[in-house]
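Anyone able to model this chain together with phosphoenolpyruvate?
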Amino acid sequence: MIVILNNKCNLNKDEFKAYLKDISEIKTKIDLVLCPNFLNISEFKSDKIILGSQNVSAQNSGAFTGEISANILKSYNVKYCLVGHSERRKYQQENYHEINQKIKKLLESNITPILCIGETKEERDSKKYKEVIKEQLLSAIKDLSLENQKKIIIAYEPVWSIGTGLIPTNNQIEEIFSYIKSYIMTNKILYGGSVNETNVDTLKKINLIDGYLLGTLSLQEK
Ligand code: PEP
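re: yes, here you go
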């Protein structure tokens, strides 16, 4: 079981130090991966929690002002990286090609990509959701060997569920998980979107689930 904590654009340096101290006290056997903002990556110290990143450049290191390459992340001991989060697709207009490039750069640096995919409310209501998920998935793994495809973790995050308190039924999630597994031999598949202490008991019963991606809950005091 793996749980990814996405801090998003939160926690200044002092807040992060206090937060890290707090979550380091959590006793758990699951793999906890923390994705702080870029600056807090350099403040990270823990022998229990695994370090992740929320983003990576689609370029190699070099003349790309403001970018952070996979090679730089690797030098900070980053083991996982989110790619294609719906907020980046929406606000940074991250496109299929960039997402595919980012995945390739991460794999070259031995960092595990966590590919986020999921449909909007309109796409679900108009029954286009499978088409959308297939397109997001196949464009992201374009030109990757089977061996590399297997290294990618997929996080199914319906856009209409992120930060809204709405969650799909277990049947709806299982339908998508099986659909994803029919296109990619990924070794792990996660669910993300409004997971909390109450609904996690229901989500745990989902067939094929390997873990969760948490946004809001990652910032809640324990
Ligand atoms: C997310 O942003 O990936 C996410 C899952 O957020 P939340 O848990 O707040 O829905």
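The chain is about 35% helix and 15% strand.
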